[in-house]
Each structure stands twice: as C-alpha cells, then as structure tokens.
Amino acid sequence: RKLVDITPFIQEATKLLRSALPSTITLDVTISSNSDSYIMADPAEIHQVVMNLCTNASQSIDGSHGTIAITLEDYLAEDHLQSTHSGMDQGHYLMLRISDSGKGISRSVIPRIFEPFFTTKKVGEGTGLGLSVVHGIVTDMGGSIFVDSVNGKGTTFTIYFPVADKLFMSKSRETQKAVPKGSGEKVHLVDDDVVLLNMMGRMLEELNYRCTKCSSGVEALSLFKKDPQHYDLLLTGQTMPGITGDSLCLAVRSVRTDIPIVLCTGFSEQLTPARISELGIDAFLSKPILLDRLGQTLDDLLNR
Questions:
Q1: What is the reported pLDDT for 90?
Q2: Residue 127's pLDDT band (cuts 50, 70, 90)
Q3: How much of the chain exceeds pLDDT 70, in percent?
Q4: Percent of the chain at pLDDT exceeding 90
Q5: Pairwise CA distance, residues 234 & 244, whole Å
Q6: More confident call, 55 vs 196
Q7: pLDDT for residue 255
Q8: Which architecture characterizes domain 2-166 according to CATH?
Q9: CATH code assigned to 169-302
Q10: Which residues contact 221 (CB under 8 A, 6 or more apart)?
Q11: Is the pLDDT of residue 80 over 70?
Q12: What is the DSSP string of the chain?
C-alpha cells in the first residue's frame, strides 16, 4: 500500500462498468473530493471494492431498469457520527457511497452479509465471497463500511476511508493532549516522496516546530553545509535517489557531531546494527508515521 489519490482509480473502474453493465442500468458518478485527499491504499484493492459492490448492485437490479450511483466526497466525522457508526474516530475521511435501486436486502439478513460464503443468491450466481472480501479490504485499511437497505427500494453501501491527515496526523482529543510539542525548534526534513514530505511538514507545524523541506538528499546536504548551526534536528527518509538517507546521516554527522538524527524507514528498509552504529542515528520511526510517536521522539531527543 502507498499514499494515493484514489479518484483516478474510481474513474477507471467506472469506465469499465459503463461498458459492462446492461443498457437498462444507468450509472451516475459524482466525484467531489479534494485533490489533496490521499489515502493509504493499494489501487488494485480500491478497484476490487468498486467492482464487487457494483456487480452486487447490478445483480440486485436483476435485468430491470434501474440506477447505480457512485459518489466520492470528503467527510468530517464529528461526535454525532460516533453514536450511529460505532468504532469510527473523529477526523477526516473519504466517503465512497454506492447505491442501487434494486430489490434491497432484508433487515434480518443485513447482520450476516459480510460473512464469508454467506449469500442469498441462486446457485451459480456467486460464491458469497464478494462482500466479505470488500469488508476485509476496507477494515484492513483502517476504514469502515456500513449498509442501509429497504426491501423493494434499493441498497446503499457507505465506506469511510481515513485520509492521510487522519493516518499521519491523528486528531483525537486524547492524542492532542498527550503529545508533547516543541518550542519552535528547526527541523531539517528530507524525503523524496513529495506527498509524504508535505504531510510531515504539516505534522511538524502542528507540533510547533519549524522546518525546511527538501525532496532530495543532495539538496538537503547542500543546505545543511551552508549553515550547520541553523538546524536543531535532522529527520530523513531512507530510500532516495542520489544520496540515500543513511549516506545523508553520515555526511551530516561528519559536519556536525552533536545534531540529533532521526531516520524514517519503511518495512523493507532495515539497516544492520553495525550500520546503525556507524551512522550515529539517534532514533528510528517506521512509516506510516503517527503524530503522537513523532512528537514524543522529537521531544525525547531535543530535551535529553
């Protein structure tokens, strides 16, 4: 999974649907989400979610004239949502809603529809795995899925995907109270993933740090050498073209031995203990980086 704008993948899936659906079914698509609403997702899984739900919708309409409506929009979950949608935190989400004008689902059946192999379809019409797969994908992404249906009138599936700000910048009240904040210290921030770089920059601002943002190790090292005392801490990713994170750490440490260094690594970017000792890295953060962990790590290093 990676940070993606899912809009083009929704559009691609709907393009395939338009050519596959019977001419008796109208497909309405409305996308009004912000272009900055990134989520942590596998595009293939997003495609599968849309196709599975729309296939179900088409089968529910069952050869009659009908409509499938797909909407994608930003959603701010507040207190009132938690009373109706248990398990959802406050924060920003991408809301994907797929509705159909089909025959609907009986209320007695709804609690079981996400169970593997459960189906109300006739023999040969499906395995009963489609909705179970969708549920697994959504929950594995940290999202939530809900269904509302009226017999004879249709069904609506509503999915809430936590946007990147939700994943990287937890907004829960408890987290905000617990996270230690800075006093305007200057962080030298480096990552070649521009989306992640901007997200991290916003996190640092929220934690009351100032930062310079560099999208390459070469640029970061050049700026650092011009004024090494200008920075209070180096926060860098590992896998970057030109100069990798570990090489940048070594170069920065050779210029200034006392600067705290934090290396952000993905799952596959593990360094050996010998290399860690050689680099003099003070702390590691694993991606995706959460606000509370970032705040605590920086506070520990800058106030030790």
A1: 74
A2: very low
A3: 83
A4: 37
A5: 14
A6: 55
A7: 96
A8: 2-Layer Sandwich (3.30)
A9: 3.40.50.2300
A10: 243, 248, 251, 252
A11: no
A12: -EEE--HHHHHHHHHHHHHHS-TTEEEEEEE---TT--EEE-HHHHHHHHHHHHHHHHHHHTTSSEEEEEEEEEEEE-HHHHHHSTTPPSEEEEEEEEEE-SS---TTTGGGTTSTT---SPTTS--S-HHHHHHHHHHHTT-EEEEEEETTTEEEEEEEEEBHHHHHS---HHHHHHS---SS-EEEEE-S-HHHHHHHHHHHHHTT-EEEEESSHHHHHHHHHH-GGG-SEEEEES--SSS-HHHHHHHHHHH-TT--EEEEE-TT----HHHHHHHT--EEEESSPPHHHHHHHHHHHHT-
Residue 57, pLDDT > 70, answer yes
How far is 235 from 250, CA to CA, in rounded Å?
A: 13
Q: Which two tokens stand for residue 181?
A: 């904040």
Name the residue ranges covered by the structural domains of the chain: 2-166, 169-302
pLDDT of residue 288: 61
Question: What is the model's pLDDT at position 195?
Answer: 62
Could you tell me the sign of the dihedral formed by the alpha carbons of 249, 252, 253, 258, in that order? Answer: negative
